[in-house]
Design goal:
single chain, mainly alpha
Length: about 160
């Protein structure tokens, strides 16, 4: 909704921020100089209103966004590589990831001994089988509907099979 707001076009810096947060791509931090200048405490936009917390809050949100994006594309990743992608220390990465898991935003498990972060739950065999059966049932329903429509067209046009 915010992405389509016409008023956002009047503030290109914030339009850029919204665009970055609504795509499924990693965001580098610090952001461009124009963005950081608009978010700085000296910017006239904020007029002292929580201005000292804005850059640190933005950094936290960028890290959370990046963790969600990585979790979407990877099922498992080495914790050292994850920390490198997030540009954080391993301890800080674990802290941020743990916060997201505890708040229910994301499902993940950290294997400290193996150095692996897992983002996908292991599926139970019965759940996989039920999902497969549902998909097959849906496919057969569509095939049956298609055959019915073909027969109907044949009857309407007098075509004999």
């Amino acid at each position: 909704i915010l992405k389509t707001d016409k008023k956002l076009e009047n503030i290109p810096v914030f339009a850029q921020i919204v665009k970055q947060f609504t795509t499924h791509e990693l965001i580098s931090f610090p952001m461009s100089d124009a963005v950081m200048a608009a978010l700085s405490a000296s910017s006239p936009i904020w007029d002292g209103f929580f201005s000292e917390k804005i850059p640190e809050t933005l950094h936290k949100r960028v890290i959370e966004h990046n963790i969600r994006v990585i979790g979407k594309y990877y099922s498992r990743m080495r914790s050292a590589r994850l920390a490198q992608l997030l540009d954080l220390s391993q301890d800080e990465m674990e802290k941020r990831l743990s916060e997201m898991v505890c708040s229910g935003v994301l499902w993940a498990r950290i294997d400290r001994v193996g150095g692996i972060v897992t983002f996908k739950k292991k599926e139970v065999a019965s759940d996989t089988l039920n999902a497969w059966a549902t998909d097959i049932s849906s496919l057969l329903g569509r095939i049956e509907e298609t055959c019915h429509l073909i027969r109907k067209e044949n009857v309407l046009h007098g075509i004999k099979a």
